[in-house]
Specification:
heterodimer, A: alpha/beta, Rossmann fold, Arc Repressor Mutant, subunit A, 5-stranded parallel sheet, 12% strand, B: alpha+beta, Beta-Lactamase, Helix Hairpins, 4 domains, 5-stranded antiparallel sheet, 17 strands, rod-shaped
């Protein structure tokens, strides 16, 4: 994923903190977009826009934690970094448990925040590759005929060609043909690979 | 004449409620009156001519002949003339108690005995019931977990139970030589006497009293006392109340209860104290947050600036430096904003009674006051007008000033560990003034200059926010906070608050 396309979304109700983060992020050549509230951010949110999100835990309106739940609901691939003030550690721990990418305590130390942002952007890229792969797999599965899908489902259940043939009332040879066509369409070379990709779209 | 007398005798015998039975010298029944018939359930015709032993249970039945013979030969009768208690037997075989007296007479040289017999079954039953009741009361008295005593109307102990002995630490014989006056705590004697007097006068039939006794070991014991009075009957025939006869007192040791209550009270106060401390802590956290924000910005701006230097982007660098200085000004201004912050923190203005508020604060501070062996003196003016203020914030100010006063005089000698809180009304300004005076080390000139500055402190542990916060609170209420040097020793802090114009106390 191209770094130029990635955006660091900064959400903080404090103007100075917000602006300084924009300055910091842009100083290393990254794109930044700032929002004064989580609601404003969500109103413009596009999960296809690559990047990462930086949000203060304490904000009027939607808090950083509440924003996190919204993002999970939306299946947002962008990682969320929670910024906490002094004494919000318990909230931050909860945020981490609920899947926040990282939490940083104000005031930040040295390189911490930039390192964290860069890692989050890499994570976003990884997430997107995974999503693309899943989408591709979905497409491939859609291209299977209903008979091919039937045979594949039984293969995943661990059944032999002979049993599948008997269950479906077709010959061994026909099962073999459906099976090899399906594996070709799904671009897999072994049963193990087949099981792996079928599981990945289920989860 | 004889006939007449015989007829009269006959009438007496017939109508007597006592059974009258006559036997001859060999024990044969000669006469059996109607009362006897009733008591023994025999018709006279059934028993006349039979031996008297018929009416006696074993072993008397067998021995009766011997009894008579003994009497006839020796002249000694265990029963003759004096009457005694015996048992008899009815026709249906039931044995019952009787009271019998005997007389002996001779007729035509023949010896006869006449017995007068009462069925005392009911009497015996009543006696037994009484005995049982006495035993029950005895057990209750002896085993009662509360102290119980019987006293004469002078207040001398005439009986005491073991629990009372435990409570008072005296043995029973020792207590029986004492009066309640001997062991009552001197301060409680007057009221004890008064109550007893009223009880004896008939003002009430009993009373409860919380009082103290002094135990034998000189320890003071707190008790709840209940005293009841028992009167004599004027006569046995009439149920009429006579003179007081004796007193019954119940004594419950409540020392433990009082100790528990005391402990509870201290715990409650500690809780309230902790609450108050945490309000201060919250305020400090609020201040920390306000300062943290511009510090965070400065840090980020600085890092950004560093990178712009590397990129030689002078214009951007200049912009960033301006932003840095703006953020640091903001950090500096936090304290100036404190006043606004105090106000923003949901200040709730109510009409408050300043004297009552001070008393509450002193209660809150009590634990520290006691721990540091301080004394707090109140000089509170009467009839002060109400003030419009946020009670909790004003409490914090007073608490802070009291704490500071204690800190200032902690190392002083005992006579200087005294804090005076006074209130007064400044009629010309329509304000109330509160002053907290200590006899501590005082405030030198250098300290005085910075006293109200945030982060200035003379204490080893402390944020230096106390007086800054206090001043902000008082100013936000439209009042003033300042201090004066005492003529003798230490300093006095004063603050004023405008009175509520609408209503007076």
């Amino acid at each position: 994923m191209n770094k130029d396309q990635q955006i660091v979304f900064i959400i903080d109700d404090d103007e100075d903190v917000r602006d300084s983060l924009v300055e910091l992020v842009t100083s290393i050549g990254l794109n930044a977009r700032a929002y004064e509230s989580a609601n404003k951010f969500l109103s413009e949110f596009d999960k296809n826009a690559p990047g990462c999100i930086l949000a203060d835990v304490r904000m009027p309106g939607l808090s950083g934690i509440e924003l996190q739940y919204k993002l999970i609901e939306l299946h947002a691939p962008q990682p969320l970094i929670i910024i906490t003030g002094h004494g919000d550690i318990t909230m931050a721990v909860q945020a981490m448990k609920d899947g926040a990418f990282e939490f940083l305590q104000k005031p930040f130390r040295d390189q911490d925040i930039l390192d964290c942002i860069i890692k989050a952007l890499e994570q976003d890229t990884t997430n997107r590759i995974k999503i693309t792969k899943q989408d591709e797999t979905q497409e491939r599965i859609k291209s299977l005929t209903s008979r091919e899908r039937e045979v594949i489902d039984k293969v995943i259940e661990g059944k032999s060609n002979k049993i599948i043939a008997r269950e479906l009332g077709i010959s061994n040879r026909t099962v073999e043909i459906h099976r090899s066509h399906a594996m070709e369409k799904l671009d897999v070379r072994s049963v193990t690979e087949l099981v792996k990709i079928m599981l990945s779209i289920q989860s | 004449m004889k006939l007449a007398s015989e007829a009269r005798l006959q009438a007496i015998v017939e109508s007597s409620i006592e059974a009258i039975i006559t036997i001859d010298g060999s024990g044969i029944i000669q006469m059996f009156n109607p009362a006897a018939e009733k008591i023994f359930s025999y018709k006279s015709s059934e028993v006349i001519g039979k031996n008297i032993s018929l009416l006696m249970p074993t072993p008397h039945q067998q021995k009766h002949d011997t009894y008579i013979k003994n009497y006839q030969t020796s002249g000694n009768a265990k029963i003759m003339g004096i009457g005694r208690e015996l048992t008899a037997v009815r026709k249906n075989g039931t044995i019952f108690p009787i009271w019998i007296s005997l007389t002996e007479f001779y007729e035509e040289d023949k010896q006869y005995f006449t017995g007068f017999i009462q069925d005392i079954t009911e009497f015996k039953q009543a006696q037994e019931a009484l005995r049982l009741r006495e035993e029950v009361f005895e057990l209750i008295f002896e085993n009662a977990p509360t102290g119980v005593a019987v006293l004469d109307i002078e207040g001398n102990y005439t009986n005491v139970n073991p629990s009372l002995c435990d409570i008072l630490g005296y043995s029973k014989p020792e207590l029986l030589k004492l009066s309640y006056k001997d062991i009552t705590y001197p301060e409680d004697l007057e009221i004890s006497d008064e109550y007893l007097h009223k009880l004896l006068k008939g003002d009430f039939s009993g009373f409860y009293l919380d009082k103290r006794y002094i135990r034998k070991d000189k320890k003071v014991v707190n008790v709840m006392l209940n005293v009841a009075i028992v009167h004599e009957n004027v006569s046995l025939a009439h149920d009429e109340k006579g003179d007081p006869a004796f007193l019954i007192s119940h004594v419950l040791d409540v020392s433990d209860k009082i100790a528990i209550e005391k402990k509870l009270k201290i715990q409650q106060e500690q809780l309230a104290h902790r609450d108050r401390v945490s309000i201060m802590g919250e305020m400090a956290a609020g201040i920390a947050h306000e300062i943290n924000q511009p510090l965070t910005a400065i840090e980020s701006y600085s890092q950004a600036a560093q990178r712009r230097i590397e990129a030689n982007d002078i214009d951007k660098l200049q912009e960033l430096l301006e932003k840095i200085s703006k953020a640091s000004r903001r950090a500096g201004n936090v304290i100036t904003h404190l006043q606004a912050m105090v106000k923003r923190d949901t200040q709730q203005h109510d009409q408050i009674k300043i004297n009552k508020l001070i008393e509450e604060v002193v209660k809150l501070a009590e634990i520290d006051v006691l721990a540091n062996e301080f004394k707090i003196k109140h000089e509170l003016a009467a009839k002060l007008p109400l003030v419009m203020a946020d009670a909790i914030q004003i409490q914090q100010v007073v608490l802070n000033l009291v704490r500071n006063a204690m800190d200032a005089a902690k190392q002083e000698a005992e006579e200087n560990r005294q804090i005076t809180i006074s209130t007064s009304f400044l009629a010309d300004q329509n304000r109330i003034q509160v002053s907290v005076k200590d006899h501590g080390k005082g405030i030198d000139e250098k300290t005085a200059e910075q006293l109200f500055n945030p982060f200035f402190t003379t204490k080893l542990s402390g944020m230096g926010m106390g007086l800054a916060v206090c001043q902000s609170i008082i100013q936000s209420h439209g009042g003033r906070l300042w201090f004066t040097h005492n003529e003798d020793k230490g300093a006095t802090f004063h603050f004023t608050l405008p009175t509520s114009l609408s209503q007076n106390e």
